[in-house]
């Protein structure tokens, strides 16, 4: 019984330290692409002696920072890593070597690395060196952390999230919640988690685009879809200095102002090709922003479901009831809106089908 209890305790500790690895990894959220976010903790005699995370592609991996932090105390210690240690010479030398040289006794791995040049070879290498390796601790959490990286590795496409703002009566609007684009606002919080944001040329033509104002926050690449444009597209939110923060996908040649913005002319403007091209450029995740979406932009989503091109949907529900002309489900400009207040939500489950979770939202009319 004592042995069983002891093992249960060890498993608890494994989970505890891998959760800490994930927390550390997240410190670099938005900065690691095309690399994954990875965290590492070194524990000796029940005490944390080193911690580290991968800050940015090209820089050392999480294990290296944690081993440096631990120094000589890494000998005979247990290393916890949210992702399998690499076993290849990439931009940096293999982490398996660093762990072996540091003489750690055990390695606990959250999940194996889907990168075909790693894929379990790291684990084999460590085991071959006589290190005890446990794999698959808090695996679901580790997968969630790097869902975009994993998706790109397995499909060669960027992970796509659709976002839209809806009125209470379900009309897609071009507004974002008041203050939503301010530092810490919902939109800027969302944007900094993505490597890129796909927007319509209509939105790009508007004066300012919300970006994250937080110091050091990731600024995404703006991917502008220009269909049936004239010969000139002006993008007021960009200057020549930050022209590299955008790329235009157009269906015919177009001159872009400011100069210096990359333009890619695609004969067929489909979401699949766009997500492949973005993955090749090293983007793991993109947010598809629906504001000011015209018909061409909306048609990008034809077949997205069959082709499994979209992985997630995010909506922001505004406390307004919109009365739009002709009852279209897209409302811009001149529509009338009634402001509501005291919004509340609760999750309601359909008893016949437990998979269906419905969010019930109420708000008070003035
Ligand atoms: C680890 N620890 O912290 C990370 C790993 O170009 P490189 O040398 O940075 O290698 C990138 C690959 O290494 C990346 O695609 C992924 O397979 C792995 N990332 N591995 O052991 C880390 N970031
Ligand atoms: Zn590595």
TrEMBL record:
It is an enzyme of class 3 (hydrolase). Its cofactor is Zn(2+). It comes from the Eukaryota. This is Riboflavin biosynthesis protein PYRD, chloroplastic. Residues 12-134 form the CMP/dCMP-type deaminase domain. The chain holds residues 40 to 405 of 704 of the full protein. Its EC number is 3.5.4.26. It comes from Eragrostis curvula (weeping love grass). Keywords: Glycosidase, Hydrolase, Metal-binding, Zinc. GO terms for molecular function: diaminohydroxyphosphoribosylaminopyrimidine deaminase activity; hydrolase activity, hydrolyzing O-glycosyl compounds; zinc ion binding. Pathway: Cofactor biosynthesis; riboflavin biosynthesis; 5-amino-6-(D-ribitylamino)uracil from GTP: step 2/4. Monofunctional pyrimidine deaminase involved in the riboflavin biosynthesis pathway. Also has a reductase domain that lacks catalytically essential substrate-binding residues. GO terms for biological process: carbohydrate metabolic process; riboflavin biosynthetic process.
């Amino acid at each position: 019984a004592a042995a069983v209890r002891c093992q249960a305790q060890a498993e608890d500790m494994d989970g505890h330290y891998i959760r800490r690895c994930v927390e550390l990894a997240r410190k670099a959220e938005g900065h690691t692409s095309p690399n994954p976010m990875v965290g590492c903790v070194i524990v000796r005699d029940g005490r944390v002696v080193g911690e580290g995370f991968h800050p940015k592609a090209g820089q050392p991996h999480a294990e290296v920072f944690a081993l440096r932090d631990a120094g000589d105390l890494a000998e005979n210690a247990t290393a916890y890593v949210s992702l399998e240690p690499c076993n290849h010479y990439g931009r940096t030398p293999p982490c398996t070597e660093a762990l072996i040289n540091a003489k750690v006794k055990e390695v606990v791995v959250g999940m194996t690395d889907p990168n075909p040049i790693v894929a379990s070879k790291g684990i084999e290498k460590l085991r071959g060196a006589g290190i005890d390796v446990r794999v698959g601790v808090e695996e679901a959490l580790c997968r969630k952390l790097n869902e975009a990286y994993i998706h790109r590795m397995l499909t060669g496409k960027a992970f796509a999230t659709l976002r839209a703002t809806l009125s209470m009566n379900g009309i897609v609007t071009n507004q974002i919640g008041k203050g939503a684009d301010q530092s810490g606002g919902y939109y800027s919080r969302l944007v900094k988690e993505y490597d890129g944001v796909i927007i319509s040329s209509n939105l790009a033509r508007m004066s300012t685009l919300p970006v994250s104002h937080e110091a050091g926050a990731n600024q995404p690449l703006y991917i502008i879809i220009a269909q049936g444009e004239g010969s000139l597209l002006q993008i007021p939110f960009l200057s020549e200095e930050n022209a590299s923060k955008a790329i235009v996908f157009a269906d015919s040649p177009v001159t872009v102002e400011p100069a210096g913005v990359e333009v890619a002319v695609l004969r067929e403007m489909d979401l699949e090709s766009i997500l492949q091209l973005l993955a090749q450029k090293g983007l793991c995740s993109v947010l598809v922003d629906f504001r000011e979406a015209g018909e061409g932009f909306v048609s990008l989503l034809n077949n997205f479901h069959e082709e499994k091109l979209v992985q997630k949907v995010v909506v922001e529900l505004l406390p307004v009831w919109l009365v739009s002309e002709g009852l279209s489900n897209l409302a811009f400009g001149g529509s009338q809106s009634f402001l509501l207040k005291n919004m509340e939500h609760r999750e309601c489950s359909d008893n016949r089908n437990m998979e269906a979770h419905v969010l019930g939202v109420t708000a008070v009319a003035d």
